[in-house]
Amino acid sequence: MELTIRNHIIFSLVMRRENLAKKCLERILGKKIRKLSYIEAEKTEEIAAGTHGIRLDVYCENEEAVYNIEMQAYHMEDLPKRSRYYQDVMDMILLEKGKTYDVLKKNIVIFICTYDPFGQGRHIYTFENCCLEDPELQLKDESTKLFLNTKGTKNDIPKPLKLFLDYIETGKTTDEYTAELEKAVGEVRNDEKWREPIMTLEMLINDRLHAAVKEARSEGKAGKESMQ
Predict the structure, then answer these.
(1) Which helix (H) or strand (E) holds 106?
(2) Measured on CA atoms in the order 36, 40, 43, 45, is the torsion positive or negative?
(3) Phi/psi of residue 196, nearest 5 degrees
(4) I need a labelling partner for 56 at 20 to 30 A (CA). Which of 24, 31, 36, 91 fits?
């Protein structure tokens, strides 16, 4: 089983390195990012007793914003609602630190998808809140959801971001940054401390996916038979 940057554990471990996480955000957002003051990989947060914990692949923040970057290598129908929940969790993390609503930072959640989540061929889909009656009227709650698509077909993003998405899609390095990422991936992959847990989790995910597909096919077959 080949372990690449598309494996969310490897991705999160690589992005623990501030210089790589910072460059990743700069390519995605298309602007310079101030020094990251806090980075936590595989952050698990429980909102209240008895609730389901949520794992954030890469949670980081600086003076201007909080960011969550998720590697999404498996198709999920509920991704839009998951993005809503993730942003709520990120705000709760800040509020738990004693912040008040009026000083909440910008909240940016990013999903790097290895499939097209909205089927329009775009490399990037950006969502912010606006008024339905007047789309030019922005809510200005400073929350943004970004969905990146490594299989995009449109000419809609700058070259540095395209090279980054192509690297995730193909594993081929084409510039200095993707070469840095691949070097870090190799170091994580060859670290015995991480190799067994990553392989075990990957096999568990594959088993669950196969079981879900089998169940869906079984339900579909049963539905057809009941209609006959």
Answers:
(1) strand 106-113
(2) negative
(3) -65, -45
(4) 31
pTM, to two decimals: 0.79
The answer for residues whose C-beta is within 8 angstroms of residue 188's C-beta and 6 or more apart is: 10, 13, 14, 194
For the ranges 51-65, 139-153, 205-219, the maximum mean pLDDT occurs at 139-153
Q: Could you read off the pLDDT of 57-81 as tens digits, one per residue?
A: 788 888 889 999 999 988 888 899 9
Task: Please give the structure tokens belonging to residue 125.
Answer: 């889909």
- Report how far residue 128's alpha carbon sits from residue 86's, in angstroms, rounded to the nearest whole number: 15
Sign of torsion over alpha carbons 20, 22, 26, 28: positive
Quickly count: other Cβ atoms within 10 Å of residue 180's Cβ.
Answer: 16
- b (16+ CB within 10 A) / e for 68-107: bbbbbbeeeeebeebbeebbebbbebbeeeeeeeeebbeb
Residue in 55, 61, 23, 57 with CA at minimum distance from that of residue 39: 61
Report the C-alpha gap between 71 and 16 in whole angstroms: 14
Question: 58, 17 in Cβ contact below 8 A?
Answer: no
What share of the chain has pLDDT > 70, as a percent?
A: 75
